[in-house]
Amino acid sequence: ARMMMMQPLRCVAVLLVLASLTEAFVPAVSNIGYRSGATSKVCSLKGTFSPILRRATVGLRAEAETENTARAVGEKDSGRHLDDTRERSDAVSDIYGPFWEAAAEILQKRLGVELEPYPIPDGYVRKEATMGKGKRESHVYTQSYAFQTKKLRQIRAAHVNGGAALQVLNFVIFPHMNYDLPFLGLDLVTLPGGHLIAIDMQPLFQSDEYKAKYSGQKVLDMHAKHAENLPWGGDFPEEAKQYFSPAFLWTRPQEDKEVETHVFDAFKDYLNSYLDFVEAAQPETDAERLEAVKERQIAYLQYRAEKDPARGMFTRIYGPEWTEEYIHGFLFDLEEKIEAGEYKVGETLPTTRELNFNQPLSGERHTMRSARGGLQVGDAETRAVCRCTQQSVSLTHSRRIQTRRGRGRGTPTPQTEDSRAGA
Fold this sequence. Notes:
Order of helices and strands: HHHHHEEEEEEEHHEHHHHHEEH
Structural class: alpha+beta
Largest sheet: 10 strands, mixed
Helix content: 25-40%
Number of strands: 10
Strand content: 15-25%
């Protein structure tokens, strides 16, 4: 009791850590919005700091995860695979470069003058690092792209290339909240043990009417065509099933050639099929339907942000602070944009950036070496040699973001509903 009186902030931090480690933050979806029991039960915060505290607690929970080499889609990744490059010493140097080039060409051709640049926070357009040591030392970069239209709130891609240890293309399209369009998710991951491919037009709703609209026979035929060459990749978490359609293409190719041919064809087909739906889409006008779309979009984004399988990888390479800001401030930024008053339904966000589909010649450099002594991150501010240090960094970062908002954008209006940790 004395500690609580003298050091309330430290007490809150300790309670949040305990809550996260004991799974007190139990995700739940209600029909009227989103909520999390732990915030009110443990600290009685009533969602005042959403999504700030969620960012800290999600970051802490990620550190407690351990890697499963047979990881299923939607499961988290500790990033420990980055230490082993032996299995892919002869890997293609940039297997997903042609994928992004094809996507950029399709976007420009299909969306044309409607395509505008989407704001990317400073310091997150490109990030570079050196990982490993000795003969296993390699260079890794993360290049981000982002665009928008009147129908599509955010079209963004994260292209990660770490040579034999790691190659990723995460390409997602989020529609504006006045359209019931699904999300397009194209997740392509190559690790030392092989490839993980997840391609889908991820539904807002699971009703028969919605499935008929966005997963009709034409889409199912497209899926069947590609599934002949790309067999089912195995089970995935039960809680994730609400976010996948009957045309979900989930596979684990063993050879690079399969990715360069069969996956490449599926990638382009799904993107073009999605843009067909976008072209035909009409805005929703019914208030009840608009509210349902908003709730499902937020639920999806919170689920993806909490369960993001790239969190362990990015934390191991760039440190926890950069990782949490990248996930919540760019990859899944809708809630922060809403709270800051920046997002307006159907409107594009202002930005000084120009349309860019190509990688710059250089970017921010960041040195990371993994050794038995722990994780050492080059930037002094995000240096972490044990989990305790990383926890401290995450909480400090959350407070800094809250202070920055209070000074620059005004204090966000507290929500009337409890915030929730995920879907």
